[in-house]
Write a structure and sequence with these properties.
- The complex is a heterodimer of chains A (about 140) and B (about 250).
- With about 140 residues, chain A is an all-alpha fold.
- Helices cover about 75% and strands about 0% of the residues of chain A.
- Chain A has one domain.
- Chain A contains 8 helices and no strands.
- Chain B has about 250 residues and is mostly helical.
- Chain B folds into 2 domains: about 80 residues, no CATH class; about 160 residues, no CATH class.
- Chain B contains 13 helices and no strands.
- Chain B is globular.
- The mean pLDDT of chain B is about 90.
- The chains are: A mainly alpha (about 140), B mainly alpha (about 250).
């Protein structure tokens, strides 16, 4: 059932955020430390496990796939509620700081990722053959 | 009749948001196709349109949440708010490949630390150039250059003035917006076309909304890799900025 997929996602999300809050409290800071990142790792591991056990049928995957397909629309809604006015009103210091840090960070990315030509054979389309529905795995599981 | 329509829209804000975003995306993909011949990705245009709407909303209402402050469009706030956004980000992990994440894991963690330090140093240097000399203001502005959440968290922890805290938020917002808009343009120059680079990218840039929006407009398949590191950045920043980085700044500038 579709709701199983949504529920798996919800459970991973909640446990990740809980873990992030817990870690934040242990570290003594008033913030969530990587909750969403933990949730993503939980989801990846859980999906791998369920696929291996052949417990992840097509409908369940659709519950997950729907939300990842809604991701871009949600990002657009997110952009429509950014505090753009405050960013521009922050004055010249804020704008220079924001622009400078982005430009410098862009320049550093290729240094860390091993050069812009280092991963020629490693482009996303070669590496990620699966589609949003889980690709080959899905074909196998729903047979 | 107009009143009935108004009530329908107002009482069904989230549904209205789906419709608005859908129409915006249709327009954006149309513009992308016809005017830029597909060179500028449809979602990049949609994000820019979204930011323009946010600006208009902010000017009209004087609020902090862009279009979502207009009472008719509160649904945008729900749809693009933290809860659904994070939920959707987590769901992108469904398409991710764990062995890729493991492979790039160490580089990803390294890029997080480098990212926080680098942003902080850039922020502090620019604050210095603008005449700030006290460690508290320098640290707060440096923290804001990391993300617009690290700035105020740090500022209130070490007792910065509200003016400096506002400045730090603005610096973080500029970073986030520029990352959203600029990522698709620089992607090919910095080799942002594979999971490994996307993870480094998330760690270096750190702004979750910026990385999430920027990667979505570049190649949606990269989103989970960038997001998985970026979501640790703010936490790391909140951890390091008011402690280690503040002490370092204090040692250097007092």
């Amino acid at each position: 059932m579709v709701i199983f997929g949504v529920a798996i996602l919800a459970i991973c999300f909640l446990s990740g955020v809980f873990f992030g809050d817990l870690l934040g409290q242990i570290l003594g800071i008033n913030a969530n430390v990587g909750g969403v990142g933990f949730a993503m790792l939980f989801l990846i591991l859980l999906v791998e496990y369920l696929k291996k056990k052949d417990k992840l049928n097509k409908q369940t995957q659709e519950g997950l796939a729907f939300w990842s397909a809604m991701y871009i629309p949600i990002v657009i809604a997110m952009s429509a509620q950014q505090n753009v006015v405050a960013a521009l009103d922050g004055g010249i210091l804020a704008i220079i700081a924001g622009v400078a840090v982005v430009l410098i960070s862009w320049a550093v990315v290729p240094l860390l990722s091993g050069g812009k030509k280092g991963n020629k054979n490693n482009t996303v389309n070669n590496v990620i053959e699966m589609d949003m529905n889980g690709g080959k795995q899905r074909v196998r599981n729903t047979r | 009749m107009l009143e009935i329509l108004g009530n329908v829209l107002k009482n069904n804000g989230l549904i209205l948001a789906f419709a608005i975003v859908g129409v915006t995306m249709y327009l954006s993909y149309f513009i992308s196709d016809k005017l830029t011949k597909g060179r500028l990705h449809g979602s990049a245009i949609a994000i820019i349109l979204g930011l323009v709407l946010a600006y208009i909303g902010g000017v009209v209402t004087g609020g902090e949440k862009g279009l979502a402050d207009v009472s008719l469009f509160t649904g945008i706030g729900l749809m693009g708010g933290g809860m659904l956004r994070d939920f959707a980000i987590v769901s992108t992990a469904f398409g991710a490949n764990f062995s890729e994440i493991k492979k790039a894991g160490l580089t990803g963690v390294l890029s997080l630390f480098i990212g926080v330090f680098l942003s902080f140093v850039v922020g502090v240097m620019i604050a210095l150039a603008f005449g700030y000399r006290d460690a508290i203001s320098l640290t707060t502005i440096g923290a804001g250059t990391a993300t617009y959440i690290v700035g105020p968290v740090t500022g209130s922890a070490i007792g910065a003035s509200s003016e400096v805290i506002t400045l730090s938020i603005a610096a973080g917002l500029v970073k986030s917006i520029l990352t959203m808009v600029g990522t698709p343009f620089v992607a090919k120059y910095i080799g942002l076309n594979n999971p490994r680079t996307a993870m480094v990218y998330g760690g270096i840039m750190g702004t979750t909304s910026g990385v999430a929006g920027g990667l979505a407009a570049t190649d949606p398949k990269l989103v989970p890799y960038g997001a998985v590191t970026a979501t640790f950045y703010t936490g790391l920043g909140c951890l390091l900025a008011p402690s280690v980085l503040f002490l370092l700044t204090k040692a250097v500038f007092s």
